[in-house]
Amino acid sequence: ILGIILFAIFGINRKPKVDTVFLKQILTKSSELTTAKLTITGLSDYNDEGVYIFNRADFTMCFTAIIRAGINLENVQIDSDPIQKKILITIPEAEIMDVKVDPNNIKFYGTGFALFNVNEKEDLAKALSLAEADARKEASSTGILDLANQQSETLIKGILANAIPKGYTMEVKK
Questions:
Q1: C-alpha 115: how far from its chain's center?
Q2: Do 30 and 125 form a contact (C-beta atoms < 8 A)?
Q3: What is the C-alpha to C-alpha distance for residues 75 and 20, in angstroms, rounded to an integer?
Q4: Where is 123: in which H helix or E strand?
Q5: Does an H or E element contain 63, and which?
Q6: What's the CA gap between 107 and 146, in Å, rounded?
Q7: Are 87 and 70 contacting, i.e. CB atoms less than 8 angstroms apart?
Q8: Are 45 and 123 in contact (CB under 8 A)?
Q9: Residue 63: per-residue pLDDT
Q10: What whole-number distance in Å separates Cα of residue 166 and Cα of residue 161?
Q11: Which of 56, 67, 118, 136 has minimal Cβ neighbours within 10 Å of its Cβ?
Q12: What is the mean pLDDT of residues 20-31?
């Protein structure tokens, strides 16, 4: 009888427990969530060191770059408030995740003549690195991070929608 009374007191009014570890595992199956993608075309000047005409390579490169912005899902925090029946999700600010210059879509202009440029491959690698840095700077001014922030909230809610207990709501904050 004591067991029945204890069950009646403690068991009937039990609220479903939210397993925040399980919710976090759902999100972190992938480490990154790309929420915005941008393709830009840019120009980048490359000025090599050395003696002009002898071993110095100077050129302008027109390129196309693909920029991905999103969030690192490892940095998402999930808590629950069983009294208010809320899942509290804190997501990090979006960041530029990746910048790739398309090697098949590069055009060179103003290529200077150099008699002994033995570092052509090294020059190209440096120029690609500079182009990626230019694309990263330009992407920051396009609003891609604002779009990625908006999309990350929507996507995380969608991913977790079927995993939260009935009657619970999700609250997302940055």
A1: 44
A2: no
A3: 14
A4: helix 120-140
A5: strand 58-72
A6: 31
A7: no
A8: no
A9: 87
A10: 10
A11: 118
A12: 73
